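Exercise 7. Predict the structure of Elongation factor P from Pandoraea terrae.
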Amino acid sequence: MVDASQLKAGMVIMLDGELHSVASAEHHAGGGQQGGAVFAKVRNLKTNHTRELRFHPGDKLEDLALEHKEMEYLYTDGVTFYFMNPDTFDQIGLPTEIIGAYEKFLQPNMRIPVALYEGDPVTIAFPPAVELTVVSTPPGLREHETSTFKSATLDNGMEVLVPQFIKEGDTVRIDAASGKYLERIRREARKP
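Solution. The predicted structure, encoded as tokens:
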């Protein structure tokens, strides 16, 4: 059990018999006759619905420790995403609602940490950024211009805006949550 005042983003708690992930938690001190309060935004891991809650700082909540297991992404049938445990070759399925916006970044054979509760998968711990290769982009108007952007198609079929100096074959880092360009990855040339 944990006090509501100790809630932090990323924790998983049990509310009304269902697992919820804490997206954010703010503690507001009270004054005068007004007591303190904790405002938390939580996401139901089963239905993916988000809601905002208010707790008294001393309210006891059931926090859960999830087991993280690295699994290999196999495929999707449009409704469920299938992952395989590389040690036991057991397969599990996660619904599209849990994968959410990360769907476009999943590639076959990609290894992703899957959070398990009592052996059942509840969510994935997707990395904050992914590296993808530029498949096609028009030549830059001005090679060294960084304040204007152009469109580029990545190897996963996604289109993003990139600086003018990016060319076909470059590897770029993309923010997984927003889908925006972060930086170009420089590959060091091997010295003989």
